[in-house]
Task: structure prediction
Amino acid sequence: MFPNLHSQVGSSRRCSRAGVSSAGFGPHKRHLLLGIALLGCWWTQEIFGAEEEKALTALYVSSKIVIDGNLDEAEWRLAQPATDFTQNEPREGEPATERTEVRLLYDEENLYIGVYCFDSAGEKGLVVTDLRRDYTPLQGDHFSVLLDTFDDNRNAFVFGTNPRGGVREGQMGGDGQASNFDWDAVWYVKSKITELGWQAEMAIPFKSLRFRDNERQVWGVNFMRRNRRKNEDIYWAPIPRPYRLSRVSLAGELEGMSGIRQGRNLYVKPYLLAPVLRREGDDIDFLPDAGFDLKYGVTSGLTLDLSVNTDFAQVEADQQQINLTRFSLFFPEKREFFLENASIFEFSGTGRGFRSSRDLIPFFSRRIGISSGDLIPILGGLRLSGTAGKYRVGLLSMQTDEFKDTPTTNFSVARVRRDIFLNSDIGAILVNKQVSGGEFNRTYGLDTNLRFFRYLDISSFLLKTATAGEQGKDAAGKFRISWNDRMFDIQAEHLSIQEEFNPEVGFVPRQGIRKSTGEFTVRPRPGERIPWIREFRPSLSIEYLTNQENLLETRSTTQNISISFEDSSSMWFTRRESFERLDEEFEIRDDQFIAVGDYQTTEYVVSYNSDRSRLFRGNVTLRTTEFWDGNKDSFQAGLGFQPGYQFGAEISWSYADISLPSGNFTTDLVTTRLRYSFSPIMFLNALIQYNSTRQEVASNLRFNFTYKPLSDFFLVYNERRSTTGEVTERALIGKLTYVFDF
Result:
C-alpha cells in the first residue's frame, strides 16, 4: 500500500515504542491499520524529526592511552567505529564523499576520542588556515564532537580540532539558540597528517565536564567533519540543512560508560599583574596587583565560581565604530568571567546566540566594570551556574569599587529556566543594581521558548523595571514566531517598550516604542543546472515602528537577494525604502544637527565576499542612500593575506562621504589585524585602528603562551596616539596565571 515508507521508518525506535498492534483484526483491517501506522510514522518523521536515533558504545580500557595523534594502541582497533556520515552541505542526506571513522574509549579519568579523516587527495587536499584557540572552523578542515552529558536534548559541550592540532571548545544552550566558544576547559588533543588524510586523538577529563551522578551514563553525542576542499559538511547523526551541530536534540546516543565520577572539581587560579602605565601629562605608574579565581563543583551539575580582585588586562581591545545614528552603539562582551556559561543568563533570544536581538537585552554584562569608557575596579564576585534536574540556574553577584564619581555598586542577577515538553522551556530573571547610598534599579520578568515539530519556534517575554523614585510606564514585552526549514525561513515579531522602561544593567537603544517586523525568505538550490551556485536566497522584510500612542516613527521595506557559490564565496543585492520621523533634533557631528521633520529615503547595497580559505581573500560593500535631508555614499573593503596556518594579515577600510545642508564631511575607519601562531599554545596578535572622527590611532598587541591547560602568560602593549603624533596613553602589561587542580 505504501511501498516507499518501510525503508524510511521501518526501524524507527520512536515508532516501535508507539506499540501499534493489529491483533484481533481481520487481514484487511490489519493492512489498513498498518498503513495508517506507517503513514503516521512517516508524517512524524518529516514534521517532528523522528528519525532512527543512532547509537555508539564507548569501550572501557585499563591501559594508558598516550595522546600523540598516532592511534596506535590496540584498544582503538577494538572499539566500535562511528561511520556512515551523511552530508548537511552541499547535498543534504547523501553519503559523505570521504570516509570518516570515530572511536570512543574511556577509563576512570578520561573520555578518549580517536578520529580518522580519510582524504583521497592526501595531504595536498587539506586546508588549514588558523591555529588560534577557538579558531574559525569555516575556513579550513575541521572535526568536532558534541557531548550532551545530561542527555536533555538542549545543552552540550563541543570540542574540536583541525589537522594541525588547533584547539576549539565551547558550550551549546537552548538546543541551538545560544553558543559560547569563549568557554575554556582542561583537555588534550594531538593531530597528525598522513598519506591518507589526517587523524586526531582527544582526551577529555571527566572533571572538565558536568553530568549526572549515576552509575550508568547515557549521553547524547554527535560528530561533525568539514572537508574544506570540497566545501562539504558531514554529520554522524544527520542534521537537516537549516541547522548545524548545535542542534543538540538531533544527536545520537552514547552508551557503555559506567562507574565514572567527576572528582573533587576544585580549581584555584591565582594571577600576578605587572602593568606599567603612562597617560598624557602624567608620570609613569607601576601598579602591580594580584588576585585569584576559584572554581568548585558544588554538585554534579552546579559549579561555583569565585573571583577576587577581578582583572581583564589581557582582553583584546574593542573594534571601534563610528556612530552616525541617534542611538547607542553595541559592543560585545569579551571578558572571560562573564562569557563562561553566558547562555544561562540569556533571555528569550535577546543575548549573544542564534538570531539574537539588540532591541532589548535585560542583562548586559558590559554594564559591570565599564562606565563611559572608564574601567571601574571590580573587587570580586561569584557565580553559581549549571543544571539541577530539569532546571538551569544562574546566580551572579559582582561588587565594584568606588571610582571617580562612580560610587561602589553591587550588581546581582538571578536566572532560572525550567525544561518543559521535549525541547521547550520557561524561565524568570531578576537583575538588581544596588548603589551605596540607597539608590537601586531592578529588572525582572518571565520568558518562554517553545519548539513545536522540527521547524516551528515561538518565544515571548514580559519585563518590568523598578527605579528608586520612579514608577509607571516601565514594562516591555515581546512575541516572536518563526518557521525555518530547508526551503523557507519565515519570521514575525512584535515588541513593545514603554517610555520609562529603564534596565540600567541592560541594553535598550530605543524606548517608548511598538515595533512589528516580518521577514520571508526562500532558499532554492539550482543543483546541476547551475553547478557553480549552491543557493539563492531572495527575501522580503518589513519593519513598522510607532510610539506608544501608535503614531508612526519608523517604517522600512527591504528587498534582498543573496547568492552562495560552491566555493563558499557569496554576494548580495539590497534595496531598502525607509521613512523616519524626528520629533526632536539630534547632533550627528560637532555643531551639525538633523532637524525635526519627516524623511523618506531609498538605499541600494551591493556586496561580495570571496572564498576565505584562499591565499588572498577580500570583501567589498558599496552603499548609496538618501541620508536624512542629504545623501551618503559609502563603502567597506577588506583584504586578507593567508600564506599558511601560522601567519595571517587583514586590513579593512570603512569610508563614508556625507552631504548635508549643514555641511559635508567624510569618515574613515581603518582596521589592521596581524597574527602569528608559533604553535597551538603560543600566539602573537596585533590590532591597529585609525578613527578619523577621534583623530587617533589605537594599537593593541598581545602575546599569549599557554604553558599548561588554563595557565597562561600574557604580555600586552596598548597605545593611543593622536594623528598629530602625541601619545595620549601607553601601557605595557604582564600577566601570569596558574591553575592548581585538586
Observations:
- Helices lie at 6-9, 13-17, 27-48, 74-78, 336-339, 342-345.
